[in-house]
Amino acid sequence: xxxxxxxxxxxxxxxxxxKRAQKQLVPTRSHCSSRQLGDQLNRQSTQSVNxxxxxxxxxxxxxTVAKGLRKFGDHGESIACLGxxxxxxxxxxxxxxxxxxxxxxxxxxxxxxxxQYEPSAYDxxxxxxxxxxxxxxDILRDELGALRHEFxxxxxxxxxxxxxxxxxxxxxxxxxxxxxxxxxxxxLAASDxxxxxxxxxxxxxxxxxxxxxxxxxxxMIAHHGCINxxxxxxxxxxxxxxxxxxxxxxxxxxxxxxxxxxxxxAGSSSRIAHQAPLQxxxxxxxxxxxxxxxxxxxxWLASGDNNGVxxxxxxxxxxxxxxxxxxxxxxxxxxxxxxxxxxxPFRLAxxxxxxxxxxxxxxxxxxxxxxxxxxxDVNVISWRSDSVLASGGDDGIIYLWNLKHLKDGPxxxxxxxxxPITSIEWSPHDSSMLxxxxxxxxxxxxxxxxxxxxxxxxxxxxxxxxxxxxxxxxLFVHQGQRDLKELHWHPQLLGTIVSTxxxxxxxxxxxxx
Length: 513
Known about the structure:
Elements: H1 15-20, H2 34-44, H3 51-68, E1 82-86, H4 89-92, E2 99-101, E3 113-117, E4 122-128, E5 136-140, E6 153-160, E7 170-179, E8 215-222, E9 227-232, E10 239-244, E11 249-253, H5 255-262, E12 272-273, E13 279-281, E14 288-293, E15 301-305, E16 309-316, E17 319-321, E18 327-328, E19 334-339, E20 347-352, E21 356-361, E22 366-372, E23 378-383, E24 388-393, E25 398-402, E26 412-414, E27 421-426, E28 433-438, E29 442-447, H6 454-460, E30 464-465, E31 474-479, E32 484-489, E33 497-501, E34 505-510
């Protein structure tokens, strides 16, 4: 039976044990300074970073990093900011202790200490679940405005489940409305039996804030087998591709479901649609995870499997031509694919568990460049411009590469994370900003246009014991989700990030973006 769709607030006591078990984090210096790297990236980008926003972030960096590295007590709502505070007799008499930043895998949680959420680090943060864990999702572009930042916010997304039984899996289309920036925490929406409740740090405000409770509405399509990866076509968000554990890639049209959710009176529904996909391709022979739609050429899709084979889908009216000559070269599984977003729309990048990055000329099916970029599996890549690409691997390292000069090595790197990188993505609104998720249960945001200001950090240290040795470009760290899998910046909601994990989804906007 399909589990009910609810917002949640389960207070489990797992974080401290999980974090203590992690390896020590060892931040390293970048190959070049943040200022030099920022200048290099900005020269190569066609986008410009607003100077006033850059100055604001730079002035607030130290305090927000300090807050952002605190870990939330474990509401599963993922909240990244916690301070560590001893329950001493002086504290019980009303004294205000100095907050200390708690670093996962580095700092123990001693008896008598507790983790506290720092709400000022976020403009908004909410968590929700869609029944079974969804380890891949995508943002659905809408027609509510190209760039929005005023609360309350509305977003649409699609996700694929990881159910215990193949027949219980679903392709989900969800709408989340009334996302307020005034109340942070986890809200409970109406469940299938009509019950509703709410949970916040101030329960006395529940009744008067009930009209500001986020509302979650979903529609579901039966999908045989767990969904390894799901992606929406940027130009037609209702066209969705799924990679199934059964070894097939399918394309779906969810236009009718989106119309129901957009009607304004969709209401809650647990009905499961049994809808046939537009197209099914079983030519991969084995399952895979790599999947990407072209941003420059509408309808072009690439899929890669665990045998190292890549197929390109060419649109032909409402069908796709696929299964011809494949892109073959990787000696192990293809982990991620990225189409060139700008000047060369038929250029494709692939990364593999063989540790290499390959660039392909799609019309000729030839590999134009190959380079060993990690000493471990390369899990994810993100193409920011025609020549700058970010990569993350099983070694926990994030690299930035200039594709025109691969032989010169990375232009930046960090091993801040202590576990494999599971997702990485450039901001669509700020060309110098990158976000990544890791199996160490941290989501990090990096800004290469700012660098540490000793005077600002000295002022912050008077009230917060910030750790030493943080990477200069580290802007924000979000924590609290267990086994983080994927993140996406919302292309229409400025500074808003959505992330998914084994425990839940989070929607949040850091206060310093």
